[in-house]
Write a structure and sequence with these properties.
It is a single chain. By secondary structure, the protein is of the alpha/beta class. It contains twelve helices and 21 strands. It has helices spanning 2-12, 99-117, 153-157, 192-205, 244-257, 311-325, 342-348, 361-373, 386-389, 392-398, 415-424, 436-445, and strands at residues 16-25, 31-34, 40-43, 51-59, 63-73, 140-146, 167-171, 179-181, 220-227, 233-239, 263-268, 282-286, 290-294, 297-301, 332-336, 353-358, 379-383, 403-406, 428-433, 450-458, 468-475. The strands form four sheets. It has a seven-stranded mixed sheet with strand order 8-7-6-9-10-11-12, covered by helices on one side. Strands 17-16-15-18-19-21-20 form a seven-stranded mixed sheet, with helices on both faces. A five-stranded mixed β-barrel has the order 1-2-3-5-4.
């Protein structure tokens, strides 16, 4: 009886709603409709303006989650996706929405988060800054090998021989061991697709084993491609086994076939996961780095470096950050969560001194190296957990900042960091965020002392729901 009741409850969660109008785009890229009972329905595969039938698969107290199964009317906000993998690959969820509407919903999300979560009184809104490049804008891509590629429903139901099951592509969303084979990706410019496809074909022709995640077998594990606006190209191949003959066979092919590669490197990683940050990266040919350039500043990027993945739009983001700070040349600036010190060096020529703080030691080493490379002598970088190192003793040692620039990860700032900023009480704070929800939370904590006087959303990732936001805070 108990089992029957439990199964009945589970079955009852699934419902079908007909002729649902999709009215909005919500958090994490999901669109929004209304059920007959007034509850919100979150949908992953519709566009605002569509009229659809919905099959629900999750029910909560205040909302449903479901999927559009029948489209009665298609929205005028729709556009034809450029990529043949759209709908299966989870990388560009908004490809079916025209770009001007993507920008509208991104800006709307920023405003909603700041007003509803943070209860922030906003200044006049500056329209979101769109990206000139709506495709082929990423400077870094990582692809995974698999000997048992993801099959489409049509392939599963087909009686035909599926042939080659090897894949070089992306993980299916939510499935750690399933790889979708990618023929052409619209995120990174040439020769990215040519290199990836050539690697796959060469591996097939020469019987180089593709990795099996579940069984932990095979040779070829991952392929990383990094490019820069200077024309530099980095290729990093991750191998599971230390097979010198097969490794050099592939690497020699790459060096010969793609002579424009600036940095050809490899990793032998025999552990269970494929993260490279604890691995030794070996330079096979060329340099162990590439360069990015911005306003005459050069930034050395290695295989493990963090750098904004849309180089062109990063330049726009940094210009906005510098403009918001309104530096005269006399200010002491703190750059919190400085990463490899890109923003710190970008604003340094308009400041008296910049102090950068970051938790990742390798990032700080890169920041110092780049500052030396750029002959910038008014920046200092320090490593440590922000909530611990950024304390009163640190302020007494390095001075009270006139301006604080903060660019935290998606989780936002730790409350102790927010409290320390309030204790310091700089004249201005420029808050750069990749998550306006956590930004709103932090702004609410500072709202009694600081007023938001400028706000600029920036689209770094077209065809996705992600959006950056820059805010200027000034003392009340």
């Amino acid at each position: 009886m108990l089992t029957f009741a439990f199964m009945s409850r589970r079955k009852s969660r699934k419902q079908v709603f007909t002729n649902v109008e999709v009215i909005d785009a919500g958090a994490k890229g999901k669109t929004v409709g209304k059920a007959p009972d007034g509850k919100v329905i979150f949908l992953p595969n519709a566009v605002p303006g569509d009229v659809v039938d919905v099959q629900t698969f999750k029910k909560r107290k205040a909302y449903y989650e479901g999927k559009a199964t029948v489209f009665h009317k298609l929205s005028d906000k729709r556009t034809q996706p450029a990529c043949e993998h759209f709908g299966t690959c989870g990388g560009c969820k908004w490809q079916d929405m025209a770009y001007e509407h993507q920008l509208f919903y991104k800006q709307k999300e920023v405003i909603n988060n700041l007003t509803r979560i943070g209860h922030i009184e906003l200044p006049e809104i500056t329209p979101i800054l769109g990206s000139e490049q709506q495709y082929f804008y990423r400077n870094k891509m990582e692809f995974s090998f698999s000997d048992s590629r993801w099959l489409t429903l049509d392939e599963i139901q087909s009686d035909e021989d599926l042939g080659d099951r090897n894949a070089l592509g992306f993980h299916i969303p939510g499935m750690w061991d399933k790889i979708l084979d990618i023929k052409k990706c619209h995120l990174q410019a040439d020769p990215s697709n040519a290199i990836r496809n050539a690697v796959k074909q060469f591996a097939l022709d020469n019987d180089l084993e593709f990795f099996n995640t579940r069984n932990q077998t095979g040779l070829l594990r991952t392929l990383m491609l990094r490019t820069s606006t200077t024309g530099d190209i980095m290729v990093v191949v991750q191998f599971f086994k230390d097979d010198k003959e097969k490794r050099e066979l592939l690497l020699d092919f790459l060096a010969e076939e793609f002579k424009q590669i600036t940095s050809l490197q490899y990793i032998v990683n025999e552990k269970a996961n494929d993260t490279i940050y604890d691995q030794n990266v070996i330079c096979y040919k060329g340099e162990d780095h590439i360069f990015e350039e911005m306003e005459g500043l050069k930034f050395k990027i290695n295989a493990k470096s963090f750098y904004q993945t849309n180089s062109t739009q990063a330049y726009e983001l940094y210009k906005i950050t510098r403009d918001f700070a309104e530096l005269s040349g006399n200010e002491l600036v703190y750059d919190l969560y400085t990463g490899t010190g890109t923003i710190a060096q970008f604003v340094a020529k308009k400041a008296k001194k910049v102090v950068g703080v970051e938790a990742v030691p390798d990032a700080i080493l890169a920041a110092k190296e780049n500052a030396t490379l750029n002959k910038i002598d008014n920046v200092d970088f320090y490593v440590g957990d922000m909530k611990n190192v950024f304390n009163q003793e640190f302020i007494e040692t390095h001075g009270k900042p006139d301006v604080i620039i903060t660019d935290p990860p998606r989780d936002g700032m730790h409350k102790d960091v927010v409290n320390q900023i309030l204790n310091i009480a700089p004249n201005k704070i420029v808050y750069v965020s990749c998550n306006s929800a956590t930004q709103a939370r932090d702004l609410a904590l500072m709202n009694d002392m600081y007023k938001v006087t400028k706000l600029q959303p920036v689209d770094m990732f077209p065809q996705t729901f992600h959006v950056e936001n820059v805010v200027l805070l000034e003392k009340r």
